[in-house]
Amino acid sequence: MIEVLLASFLVGLTGAVSPGPMSASILGMSHKKPLLSTLGLVAGHGIVEAAIIIGIIFGLSSLPYQTGIALLGCVTIVILGVLQFMSEPEKKAAREEGAGAPFVAGIVLTLSNPYWWIWWLTFGAGFLALQPAYAAFFVGHISADLVWFGFLAFTASRGAEILGERYRWVVKGSGIAMAAFGIFFAWSILAD
To answer: Is residue 58 part of a domain?
Structure first.
C-alpha cells in the first residue's frame, strides 16, 4: 500500500508540474489568498478525480464521442483563458471571496482538459488495474497536487507583493497561456 501511495504521489507530481490550465489558473487567482485558492482548486479537481476512480472501479474505460468532448473542453479552456486575461486581479479577488471560484475552477478545468481524460482512461485505468489500491492511489495523487499547486500559489502571492500593480500582467499572461493550451490541445486532437 505504501508503494502505491508513493508511486501515485510521484506520478501525480509529474502531471501537476507540467504547465497547463490548472497552473495558469492558480497563478491568476492566488495572489491574495494562496492557501484558500490551492485548497479550493485541488478540492474541485479532487472531486472529479474521485468520480473517475469510482467510474474505473465500475468499468469505465472509454467514452462515446471522445473527440467532440475533447474539443468542447478545448473551447472551454480558451474561454476561461480569455476571461482571465480580461479580468483585473483586485476586482476578481473581491468577487471570489464568497463565490467558491477556485473550487468551481478546479472542476471546470479538470473536466475540460482533454489530456486529463486521455491520461485517466489510459494510464490511470491501467495503473489501477495493476495496483487496485484505490484509496492509496487517490491520496498520493491528490497530495502531489496540493504540494505543487500550494508551492505555485505561495510563490505567486509573494511575487504579487513584490510586483505590486504590475502583477496584473502576470495574471493576463496566465490567461494567454491558458487560452494557448486550449488551442494547442484542439490542434493536437484535430491533427490526429
So the answer is: yes
